[in-house]
Amino acid sequence: MTTLFVATTGGHLAQLDRLARRVPPDGTALWVTPDSEQGRSLLADRDADFTHAVPGRSVSGVLRCLPIAHRMWRDREVTRAISTGSGIALGFLPYLAARGVECHYVESAARVTGPSLTGRIMRWVPGVRCYTQYPGWASRYWHYGGSQFDCYAPAPAHRDRPGPTRVLVTVGTSAFPFGRMLDQLVRLLAPRGALSTSTGRPVEVLWQTGSTPVDGLPIEGVQYLSAPDLDHALSVSDIVISHAGTGSAMAAFEAGLKPVLVARLHEHGEASDDHQGQLAEELQWRGLASYRRVGPVDVAELIESMSWSVRRVDEPSPFSLLPRREGSGRR
Q: Which of 54, 117, 154, 208 gives 61 a disulfide partner, CB atoms 3.0 to 4.6 angstroms apart?
């Protein structure tokens, strides 16, 4: 028996990594994700198959997954499959469900008020059980199994590190550029900017810029950080300013930091929709992040974020998967 864990890179893979720890084991585990620095570093010690990326709304990308799904079903005796999306899930779960594999699709924690396009399609696929991480939109079609964010809680912080204020700015792994976020932070985090002036300390910034061009900005950016490099950057940071992506937020939580979030907006070509704002509001409501719906980040938010931390909850409840249906099995 083999459980297949499949997700695209970024927040989807980060969520699945944590979700896998909360579901009962069922045989050996096999991971499938697009080939990326994040995936290879995160799954370095696990049985993993690295494949092609599936761009948003790419029918051809989904179809290219089918031979891989068949090979894994045939050669690895896959009996259960779990995915947090996004489009890559469509290339694996419908095929495996048709073969009698027990399939579970968990909608991303980024989807606060309703399912993504992948989720809306998956809900109609026979044999695929669908889950929401928010009880507010659970239904007969969407089972509430728990939330990624149940694993975290806010706590006061007592940071008094000497030296400069270290800031990590990250736009995540999204294919959409996010110049608006970087533009507003350049002056705020400059050597004689508002943060340095307010704290009386120099500021050191690590800019993770992703697909955002920075040729016209007075910064030296790193396009992508491996999982170990990101973990190290977070471990030495006093402040994290991040796009409101699930993976980036959870990475900050794991490091004990309360991030300051900036939501990508569809109207500016920064995302395919406005789900990041919904996620940021949810995390702010939980006390896990700072978010301002209107206007740029200000220095008060940054200073306030240093007075809080995020701790892991001891022994979070298991993620509740629906039981195997009678008569299901490989065929």
A: 54
237-283: pLDDT as tens digits: 999 999 999 989 999 999 999 999 999 999 999 998 899 999 999 99
Strands 239-243 and 165-170, by their bridges, are parallel
Rg (CA), the chain: 20
Q: What is the largest CA-CA distance in the chain?
A: 68
Beta strands per DSSP E along 27-77: 28-34, 48-51
pLDDT digits (tens, 9 = 90+) for 93-128: 999 999 999 999 999 999 999 999 999 999 999 999
4 near 92, Cβ under 8 Å? yes
Q: How many CA atoms lie within 13 A of 98 on its CB side?
A: 11
Contacts of 35 (CB under 8 A, 6+ apart): 50, 51, 52, 53
Residues 6+ apart with CB under 8 A from 271: 174, 176, 264, 265
Question: Which amino acid would we find at residue 317?
Answer: S
CB contact set of 171 (below 8 Å; sequence gap of 6+): 178, 181, 182, 208, 209, 210, 211, 212, 242, 243
112 neighbors 125 (Cβ within 8 angstroms)? no
DSSP assignment letter at 200: T
Domains in the chain, please, with CATH? 2-147 (3.40.50.2000), 158-306 (3.40.50.2000)
| Cα distance between residue 110 and residue 286, in whole Å | 14
